[in-house]
Amino acid sequence: MPRPRHAVVLAMAALAIVATRPLAPPAAAQAPRPFTLDDILSYPFPDVLTTAPAGNLVAWTFNERGQRNIYVAAAPDFTPRRLTSYLRDDGQELTSLSFSSDGTRLVYVRGGAHSSNWPAEGNLAPDPAGDPAQPKVQVWSIAVAGGSPALPGDGDFPAVAPRTNMVAFERDRRIWVAPIDGSKPAEQYFFARGTSQAPTWSPDGSTLAFVSNRDDHSFIALYVPGQPIRYLAPSTSRDSSPAWSRDGKELAWVRQPGRGGTPRSSLVQAPSPWAIWVAPVDPASPGRRTAARQAWKSGTALVDSPVRTAGAMPLQWAADDRLVFMSYQDGWPHAYSLQHPGEGSTPVRLTTGTFMVEHASLTPDGRTLVYAANTGADTDDIDRRHVFAVPVAGGAATTLTSGRGMEWSPVVTSDGTQGGYLSSTAQRSPLPAVTPLGGGAVRLLAQDRVPSQVPVAQLVTPEAVVYKAPDGVEVHGQLFRTALGSAKRPALIYVHGGPTRQMLLGWHYMDYYANDYATNQFLAQRGFIVLSVNYRLGIGYGHAFHFPDGGGARGASEYQDVLAGARWLQARGDVDGSRLGIWGGSYGG
Question: What is the pTM of this model?
Fold first, then answer.
C-alpha cells in the first residue's frame, strides 16, 4: 500500500531534539513556561491494589520516580501510610501483594520483570544500576503495624495459607514453603515430577492445589503433608487456574487441549476451545479419589477462545455454589456465572452490551461482582473505564463511577461497605480512591505524593476521534493538541504496543502506557498535533476488531488503520500535511 505523500518517519532519537527545541507559538499567544519531560514524567504510579480479609484495609504499590514502596490505608479515614522504605531507583518491581487471613501482615515479591513480554535472562531480576551484588527475586512480608520486612525466602508468586500463617511460593520450578514471618528457613514442600507452579491453598489452609506442568500437557494436583500427591482427572490436556470453592469441598480448573498434533498454518487463526472442570474434594480425606466432571465447555469457533486482555478475570467461586468466569462467546468479553456446576449446566450472562469487562473482583460475601468496563452514559466512554456492580445470580448492573475520568482495578473492603479502585483523568495521573458502595463522596488517596512539578494545569484533554480505514473498518483514536492559534502545525502518529492494548482519553492504567500518554502530552505542548491510533488487533472494540482477518503476521491489515490516520491528519486544516511523523513503543516501534 503506498505511503502518504511527503510523510516523514520520526525516529525515536529525534525526540531528544524535540525536547530542546519547542516550536515557537504565534507571537500573540501567551503560553505558560513549557514543561519538560522530567516534569511530566515525575508523576507517581499506583498499582497492585488489594484489600485485607479483615480490618477494612486497602494496600497498593507506588512507583515514585523509581522508588517502589507499599502503602496502606485503613477505614474510616483512609489516611495513606508508607510501610516499606525502598529509597533507591534500582528497577526492582513490587508484585503479588496480598494480606494474611487476619489482615496483620502483607506478603509481596521484590524483584523480577513481571511486566515484560518475556522473562529476564535466566529469570534474573533487573539490574539497571549495574550493582555488583546480584539482585534477587524474593518473597517478603511486613507487619501492617510497621517494622522491618521479613524474608520467607527467594522465590516468586506467593500464596498465603489461611489460618496457618505459612506462605507457599515458586522457586526453581518447585513449590517451597516458609512461615510468613520468615522465622524459619524455607524448605521444598514436596517432590513432584515436571514443573510445579501456581500454588493455591484450600480455605482452611490444609491442602495445597498446584499445576504440575509437563510441557505439552499439565495436571491439577493436590498435596496434603504425609499423603501421596493426588492428580485430578489426569489426561493429555493442559489443565490450569485451580480455584477452590468457598467451602473447600470442590476444586475447579480450566482445561485446554494439549500441545502437539498436526502442525497448523501460521496464516490461519486457529480456535482454542476450553472447558471448566470440577472435582469434589473431601475435607476429611483430601486424598480420596472421587469423580471429576466437565462443568462447562466452550464452542469451537474462534470467538469461543479464552479471553486474553490485560485485565481478564480469573476463574473464581462466588456464593451459592456459583462459578464466575469470562467469555468472548457473544463477541465481547463478558462475565458469566454457573450455578451448581455440572454436566449440562447453563451459564447466566452477568454483563450485556457492546463493551469489555476488565479487572473484576467479588465482594466478601461472594454475592456481587464488581468490575471495570469501557462503557457509560457518554458514547466516548468506550475509550474510558468505569466501575459497575452486578449480582452473581444475575440482574441489573449498578453504576458505581461515571464522568470524564477513569476508574479500574476495583476492590471491596472486608466489611463490604467501601469500594476501592485506581482513578485518573485527562490531567490527573493515577491515584487510589475509595467511595461508599451505598453512595457518597469519592476520597482520593495520596494526592500529596504528586510532585508540584507535574504540570496538571497545562495538560490538554484529548479529543475522541473516529475515522475509517480503506476497507471500511472504524478506527478510534485520541487527538492531542493545544490552542496555539491558526498556524498549521506538524503532526505525529502514535502507535501503541501490545498490540492487545487500548489507549484511552486519560492517563492509562498500565505504567508503560502512562509514560506514553505523558509523552504525547509533552509533544502536544511542544506544538505537535498527536493522533494516538487504536488500530485493529487491539482490545476494547469487540472480537472482530481484536482478531481481524489478515492481521499481524497474516497480512498486517492493521497498518491500514495507521496509514488512514496519517491521511486523516493530512486532511485537517490545522495540520501541515508535509510534516508528518510517527513514533511508538514495542509493537508500535
Answer: 0.91
Geometric angle at alpha carbon 43, from 310 and 35, rounded to 5°: 125
Contact 58, 420 (CB under 8 A): yes
What proportions of the chain, in percent to the nearest 5, are helix, strand and coil?
A: 10, 35, 55
The residues with which 81 forms a beta bridge, in sequence order, are: 72
Structural element, H or E, at residue 38: helix 37-40
Tell which phi-psi region holds residue 24, choosing left (phi > 0), alpha (psi between -120 and 50) or beta: beta
Q: DSSP letters along 192-253, please?
A: -SSEEEEEEE-TTSS-EEEEEE-SS-EEEEEE-TTS--EEES--SSEEEEEEE-TTSSEEEE
pLDDT tens digit sequence for 75-93: 999 999 999 999 999 999 9
Q: Are 282 and 202 in contact (CB under 8 A)?
A: no
The helix/strand count (H/E) of the chain reads as 5, 37
DSSP-assigned beta bridge partners for residue 159: 168
Contact yes or no for 159/171 (Cβ under 8 A): no
Whether the CB-CB separation of 280 and 289 falls below 8 Å is answered with no
Cell of 436: 461508599
Residue with cell 456481587: 368
Give dist(CA 454, CA 429) in Å, integer: 9
- 68, amino acid identity: R
Three-state DSSP class for residue 519: helix
User: What does pLDDT average to in each consecutive run of 10 residues of the chain (589 residues)?
Assistant: 35 38 50 88 96 96 96 96 95 95 96 75 72 91 96 97 94 97 96 96 96 96 96 96 96 95 85 95 62 94 91 91 95 95 86 96 97 97 97 96 96 96 98 92 95 96 97 97 87 96 97 97 96 97 95 93 97 95 94
State the cell numbers at 190.
514436596
The torsion angles phi and psi of 546, rounded to 5 degrees, stand at -70, -35
